[in-house]
Design goal:
Length: 297
């Protein structure tokens, strides 16, 4: 009898924690073209106090939530688990490394499921810790950071009811609301778009134009240098009548001056050059002087 009562007590404790907004379920997974899943999932419950009873209830609640949403995922190949204790929450961190799609095999309604249909992956799941199931209302200002799911597809997303960013679809909800999730996306990596090809083409054209411009500039410079080297040298500047400034007189020193060689005096301009000798002229006769008369005594 005690064994049959214990699960009910644990389930009632989890329900009370859920209605109090004390559950954390955060999943971020990535699908690959080879039909595997990578990522991480956190399942935890807020501890009301650090007693053994509270920790036991939290661990039991974590296990129940994981089984309800993930089935036997924790025992599949490529799955590893570790204790999670952060911000007052206690639970389990589940790491996925190349886990097969078939590992998400929970039979519970609303459990997370991944299937492949042709060239597309299909995701579905429901998170429902709402107080509506217990007759309560909803709070529009309730915190929605503890219940989040994101799925990244290899190819383009073709259908979803979450928030899309690239090929990733994400959802979040407060604890008092029911969240139904669905998405469909390509199972193969998306090829480059037309815009990418246009950008690549523009870059190639710009680079080619730059190379051509540089080559033309270098060729022009080489031709100009060849013309300059082949042209004759310019003529010397014309001689002008400008007076050349006299050099400064050297400073006098104590060295004895060397006697200057006297220059040959120039021939006076009045003296005509001697004529060439012709015939010797006869000597001129000297007139005789008359003798004085003799006087008598």
């Amino acid at each position: 009898m005690k064994r049959s009562i214990l699960p009910r007590v644990i389930a009632l404790g989890v329900l009370v924690l859920a209605l109090a907004g004390c559950v954390r379920f955060q999943a971020a997974v990535t699908l690959t073209p080879d039909n595997t899943v990578n990522g991480e999932i956190v399942v935890a419950v807020l501890l009301p106090d650090d007693t053994t009873e509270s920790r036991t209830t939290a661990q039991a609640g974590t296990t129940q939530i994981a089984t309800s949403l993930l089935g036997t995922l924790t025992s599949a190949p490529g799955v590893s688990t570790s204790d999670y204790e952060q911000d007052g929450y206690l639970g389990t961190r589940i790491k996925l490394t190349n886990v097969a799609l078939s590992a998400f095999n929970s039979q519970e309604a609303g459990a997370l499921k991944f299937t492949r249909e042709g060239d597309e992956f299909v995701f579905s799941g429901t998170i429902d810790f709402s107080s509506e199931s217990a007759g309560g209302g909803t709070d529009e200002n309730a915190d929605d950071s503890n219940l989040t799911v994101s799925v990244t597809f290899p190819g383009a997303v073709t259908d979803h009811n979450g928030e899309l960013s690239g090929t990733t679809v994400s959802w979040k909800t407060p604890i008092d609301k029911r969240l139904e999730m669905s998405a469909r996306g390509g199972a193969n990596a998306a090829g480059p778009g037309i815009l990418l090809f246009v950008i690549i083409g523009v870059v190639v054209v710009v680079l080619a134009a730059a190379v051509v411009a540089v080559l033309l500039l270098l060729r022009s410079r080489r031709n100009r240098a060849a013309v300059v080297s082949a042209s004759p040298p310019p003529p010397p500047p014309p001689v002008t009548d400008a007076v050349t400034p006299m050099a400064a007189e050297p400073a006098k020193t104590d060295t004895p001056a060397t006697p200057a060689v006297s220059a040959i005096p120039p021939i006076p301009a009045t003296i005509a050059p001697a004529a060439a000798p012709t015939q010797a002229a006869a000597p001129a006769k000297t007139p005789k002087t008359p003798k004085p008369p003799k006087t008598t005594d």
